Each structure stands twice: as C-alpha cells, then as structure tokens.
Amino acid sequence: MSAFEFSHVPLDTQALQASLQDPASGGYASFEGWVRDLNEGRAVKHLEYEAYEALARKEGQRIVEEAITRFGVRGARCVHRIGDLGLGELAVWVGVAAPHRGEAFAACRHIIDEIKHRVPIWKKEHYTDGDSGWVNCERCAAPTVDGHHSGSEQGHHHDHQPAPLTAPVSPHDSPVPDYSRQIVLASVGVDGQKKIRAARVLVIGAGGLGVPVLSYLAGAGVGVLGVMDSDPLEASNLHRQTLYSLQDVGRPKALLAAERLRALNPDVDVRPYVQRADASTLPTLAAGFDVLVDCSDNFRTRFLVNDVTVTLNKTAVIASVYQYEGQIQVIQPGSACLRCVWPTATRDGLVGNCAEAGVLGPVPGVLGAMQALEVMKVLLGTRSPAENAVVLFDLQTLQTRRLKASRSADCPTHCSGNDLAEAKPTDRGILENGPLIDSLDRARALGLAIIDLRDEQEVTQEPLWVLHRHIPLVRLLDDSSVLDQSTGYLLVCTKGLRSSAAVSTLRERGHGNVYSLVGGIAGLKERSTPR
Question: How far apart (Å, rounded) are the C-alpha atoms in residues 61 and 495?
C-alpha cells in the first residue's frame, strides 16, 4: 500500500479509511475534493486530469512522509484521480490517523496544500462554452481561513489564487519558515536541510556581493549567520544593495542587514559584527564559523580571508567584481588557495573598486547569488567546479572561463606571516606605500612631470587641465621603461588610490622618483573649493 497513488477508477472512501485504522489513533481527519459545476463564473460539464506519474508519485510520497514526520501522525494516505471525471465525482482524497485530532487536522491540511503546490498534475476544465486547455494545478487549491480541518469537505476549487508557502495558519497563529521547495530536491532532502540548519557561516562584507549572499543563506535556513561590516550605508550603495532603504542611510550595514534577515527568517541566528576585518579581528571571529564568505571590495581583506581560511583549516567562497566582470573561487582544506594562484597580495588601487570603476547593480547581484549557491554546495557536500580553479564571468558577453589552479608546494606556509596591516601616515605626510604630494604647484616646483593614469573614458569625461602625459595604469605597469630614471614623476588618477598603489609598485622596480597626488583629481578639487 503506497502513501500516495493515482487512480483511474472511482475512489472507495470506506476502504481507504479502513486502511488507516489503528488502535493507537484517537483522531482521524480526511479531505475530499469533488468536481463542481461552476468555475470562475463559467458552467463546467466535466474535468480531465493528467500527471507525470513517475515523478508525481515520488513527490507525493515524499509529501506524505514529510507530514507523518513533521506532525507525528500514525498514518496518512493520499489518492488522486486521473482521467475524465464527471460532476460530483471525487477527485482527490486525503486521510490521516493520529493519536490526537490536532495533529490529524494539521497533517491533512499540509498534505493537500503541498500536493497542489508541488506535484506535477494538469487539468482541463470542460465548460459549456469551450475548454480551458491544459493547466498546471499548482495553486489551484486556495485554502480558506475557516474549517478546512474538520472531517470531509466539499469543493475541488480551481480559482488560481496565490497559495502560501507554509501550511495555512489561522489569524491567531504566526507563520513558520518553510523549506519544502529545497527539501524536495534530491540533493537536499531532510538530511541536507539538517546540515544547512547546523551550519555556521560568516559573511565578510554586507554590500553588493554580501546582500544576495546573506539573503539567500538566511532564506535557506542556515543555522548561524555572521555579518561582518564596519561601514555605514551610503545612498550610492542602494542601486545594488537592495536589502536596505533610503531612510537607512548613515546606519551601520551590519545592523541593518541583521534586522532585515531576522524579519526574512526568524529561524536563523543572525549575528552582526560592526567592525573591520583585519588581522586583529578576523582570526578570532572566524574560529567560530565553518565557512567564510568574502564579499569585501578590496584585495587586502580578500587575501586576509584567504590566509585565515587556510591557517584555520576552514572553507571559504571568494568572489570579486570589476565593472561587468567577476570571478569566484572555492577554497577547501587541501585545495588550491588564493596565494597558490597569486602568491603576492595585489595592492589596493591597481584595480578600481565600484566607486572608481563604476558598477551596474545586477553584476554583483549575480556574483553574490552564485557565491550563495557555492556555499550551499559546500554545506551539502556537493563538489564544485570552482574548487582548484578560478571561474571567470563576463556578464556583457555571458562568457565563462574556468582556469585550473594547482595547490602550491608552499601552501599553507605562504599564508602565514604576511603583513596585511593598514598603511598609516607618518609625521612627514608620507604613506608606507609611497610619497604623496598634495598640489600640482608643488609638483611643478619640484620639476616633476605629470602622468595621468586614468582610462580613456575617464579622461574624456574630465580632462586634466595642466600639461601632462596620458599613460593608462595597465600600460605603465606593463612597461615601466617609458619612465626616465633621471626624471621625477607625479602620478594622477581620480581619487589617488591607483596612483598610490602604482607608486609603491614602481619604487619596488627601482623607480625611486615617483609620487602620488593626494586624493587624486577629486581631492585636488575639494582642497581648492572655498569653504
């Protein structure tokens, strides 16, 4: 006897009820759906039902078993008719036997609602003035607030009203999280959901990448979700950080994210950390989590996450975005890490962040959603093509490339002892990553030639108004022989980040007489504006 089955012949409700009789059951509830003569104001002559039976039986069986486990009932069955049914015929029957009536009512209601939402069944309404064509029965059983519980009920409704994700609740109850849409996947199931529930995930960065990561992991029911971010929300964030609202500007993103995620899923233990991820904070915090997700916007933090991950023998999912491009890497214990691909941490500024390079909101949204998917694979024990590889995405062309990565012989030792401390100004106004000059007049007084490092688009939008050479940053670093060792240079970019990083790189190559304009062109304009 199967817990869920189809029938091509009329149903014998007495025999079905008898199959559930149990001396230990003091409560019994059933649902009966009949074919009625009117639907959406049109007269009905008869109905036809079809199903993808192989898949439908498996899914229906899973639903009934879920109800037995969830509500603690002794037995449950569901039978659905297939074929041509006349008016008044019984189309679907659900029966539940339980120790008490409450569990029987709840399980019965859960089964019929989930059958209508999840099982691939199609119907065709034959009206007096034509037919409806084949329609998926999902959402065709809109529940009422009153009395869907008590014994048999008439009315096989087909009003296509939106159905709830959880078992319907009375006005006095509170809805509960429902993970049924992912539990139905063979790769998840009840055991997989338990793994997700037991997981502890720390997300570093609650911005463009972090927002979709946090939203999807909270929705999935991750047990403990840490949010680490020291930044307040800015209005310029909102086109891509859609978890927040304009009225939230100025508040810490970690706290805002925690509020939104708790509202999304109260089942998740959300822990906000309003602090910067650095060498003094991240290692201690990371020790209490299973998976780290790097959603930061700078290389310093990204390499720190990598080093902490490898040192603590954790797992990390790392992603980055540049304009329309992105990349993802999954670091597992024993796999290739970030330094196996790039042994030396890239200096911040050599590649523009979202503020300098610009970004369309959906780009980090797509990459963040993919990060969340990779985290789910990790939690469920599913292998990923992003392990021992770097996966590159071009969202303008929709091209994807997978670059294989091999674990270095130096791993994990190359992840320890790295100095990732923040650069700090000295008394002479010099940063440890290179000298700074705060005006063009001073540069001219020192006899420095000015080089504009910006790309063509930036230069076109805002030309530099003094005599200079235009050498884009990538070209300059690719061939620094264009610099005369006997000449000094002032490097200029939009905000001073790229020029500062370039100065540090060039000085390491032996070009000692290069300087960076403090704050770039934006800083120059700000300093010259009367206050």
Answer: 61
User: For strand 489-492 and strand 514-517, is the pairing parallel, antiparallel, or unpaired?
Assistant: parallel
Among 131, 150, 176, the domain boundary falls at: 176
Residue 338 sits in which domain range?
A: 189-415
Residues facing 434 on adjacent strands: 431
Indicate if 388 and 458 belong to the same structural domain: no
CATH of the domain at 377: 3.40.50.720
Helices and strands, counts by H and E, the chain? 17, 23
Both tokens assigned to 423: 């650069």
The percent of the chain in helix, strand and coil, each rounded to the nearest 5, is 35, 25, 45
Tokens of 116: 């209508």
* Bridge partner residues of 122 (DSSP): 50, 136
Asked if residue 175 lies in contact with residue 142, where contact means CB atoms within 8 angstroms, the answer is: no
Per the listing, tokens 């991750």 go with 222
Number of domains in the chain: 3
Which CATH number covers residue 48?
3.90.1170.40
Query: For residue 42, is it within any domain?
Result: yes
Instruction: Report pTM.
Output: 0.54
Angle at 13 between CA 12 and CA 17, to 5 degrees: 125
pLDDT of residue 133: 75
What is the residue-wise DSSP string for 315-335? EEEEEEEETTEEEEEEE-TTS
Token pair of 274 as six digits:
């309003």
pLDDT number for residue 57:
87
DSSP, collapsed to helix, strand or coil, labels residue 77 as strand
83 and 20 within one domain: yes
376 and 500 together in one domain = no
Tokens (6 digits) for 526: 């700000």
Q: What is the pLDDT of residue 174?
A: 56
Assigned token pair, 296? 């930061």
Cα–Cα nearest to 516, from 453, 424, 427: 453
d(CA 528, CA 141): 68
Q: Is residue 333 in some structural domain? A: yes
CA 329/CA 277 separation, integer angstroms = 19
Amino acid at 198: A
Helix residue spans in 271-412 (DSSP H): 282-286, 299-311, 338-341, 354-357, 362-380
**Last residue of some domain: 415, 450, 477?**
415
CB neighbours of 521 closer than 8 A, spacing ≥ 6?
462, 464, 492, 493, 494, 495
Using alpha carbons, select from 112, 11, 91 the residue that is nearest to residue 44: 91
Residues of the chain with pLDDT under 70: 136-174, 344-358, 417-434, 528-531
Cβ atoms 76, 67 nearer than 8 A: yes
How far, in Å, CA of 82 to CA of 250, rounded?
Answer: 59
Tokens representing 50 are 């079809």
pLDDT of 136 reads 67
Residue 402 lies in a domain: yes
Place of tokens 């002032």: 490
pLDDT for the residue 178: 85
